[in-house]
Amino acid sequence: YRPQDSVYAAAAFSWRSGMTKHSATHRKIQDFNGQERLGYTFGKKRIGDNRLTLFTGVGVRYLNEKVRVHSASLEVAYTEFYVPLGFLFENKVNSIFSWGCNFQWMPQVFPLVRLEPLNGAQWSLKYKLSNFLVEVPLTFNVYSDRLAIIVSPFFETWHDGRSTAKTKTGLKLGLPSNSYIFTGVNVSLGVSF
Question: Cα–chain-centroid distance for residue 39?
Fold first, then answer.
């Protein structure tokens, strides 16, 4: 819900899970991502029937990875705080169809990692600035704007920095950086009453 010419406040949450297997190797990932947003939606006075919302906020991502190779296993849990900066755009083409864009830049401000075999110790990571999300929602209104079918292709890139921890002798922990590319299509149903 984004009324035109008004302050925008929202909370967003997503959860993803997946796994890969290859002979003796097994990898499982769970990704939890939450945001609190605050911004402003421009409206009729400035851009006609289109809506443009600029926002910022606070986000936290928890990404848990379990890797098993033969009998050896490792669990790595990333907790990364970031600041989402973005915009939401919606163009109403006609009474039945509208399209939009959700763009977010998500620079990290406090990334941490925990390795399970090491009794839950946490280490700081080098923060990454190159995290982006682009989503293009296509909305089809059915039954007098009371029911909407939304098809949203998306592309997201997320990077975990390498560990910065060193021993007193200068030996590095050596945890490398990771890059994730998420892509797909979300299909949802909206009901107004």
Answer: 18
